[in-house]
Amino acid sequence: MINKHAALYEWLAKCPLLPDTLIASFLNERDGSVAVTPISNPTYIKRYLRGRGIMQYEFAVSVMLSFSDSTDETNTNNLFLVHTLQEWLREQEKLSNYPDFGADCSDYQLEVLSDMPQLAEKYQNGMAKYQFYATLKYFYEGD
């Protein structure tokens, strides 16, 4: 059985636009920290005989960046940076470049679930968490 969490992490870690090292399921309070966090285990959307079917794997990409309470460009630059990560994911869909979930998985479809990242949280230390969600659907051959 393939560790799909590790496969997603290894695939996303290859993104040249990441502002810092990607960490699986942990977001540092350091400027530029990036995390990929599964939202749910892969689940069936549609199930056929013998375990075959269409499955969905949902995940969040979070980035910690310093924010500003002035009129400078810090916050808009933050949104732009995280938006470029969304666009990188969309480009991978166009290129049919997906994580390797194993030989029993095929017909992938990657979708970013929003057109803009969201400011998820602001912290007292001057940092802010930006994030967006994505889903990877695929056909699973089953057992």
Q: Beta fraction of the residues?
A: 35-45%
CATH level-3 fold name: STM4215-like
Class of secondary structure makeup: alpha+beta
Name of the level-1 CATH class? Alpha Beta
CATH architecture: 2-Layer Sandwich
Mean pLDDT: 92
Q: What is the helix fraction of residues, given as a range?
A: 10-25%
Describe the model.
- This protein has 143 residues and is α+β, with helices and mostly antiparallel strands.
- The chain has a single domain (4-140), classed as STM4215-like.
- The protein is 21% helix and 38% strand.
- The chain has two helices and seven strands; from the N terminus they run H-E-E-E-E-H-E-E-E.
- The protein has helices at residues 4-12, 74-94, and strands spanning 22-24, 34-38, 43-47, 53-66, 105-112, 118-122, 127-140.
- Strands 1, 2, 3, 4, 5, 6 and 7 form a seven-stranded mixed sheet that branches.
- The longest helix is centred in the middle third of the chain and has 21 residues, at 74-94.
- It is elongated and about 60 Å long.
Helices and strands in order:
Elements: H1 4-12, E1 22-24, E2 34-38, E3 43-47, E4 53-66, H2 74-94, E5 105-112, E6 118-122, E7 127-140
Parallel strand pairs: 1-2
Antiparallel strand pairs: 2-4, 3-4, 4-7, 5-7, 6-7
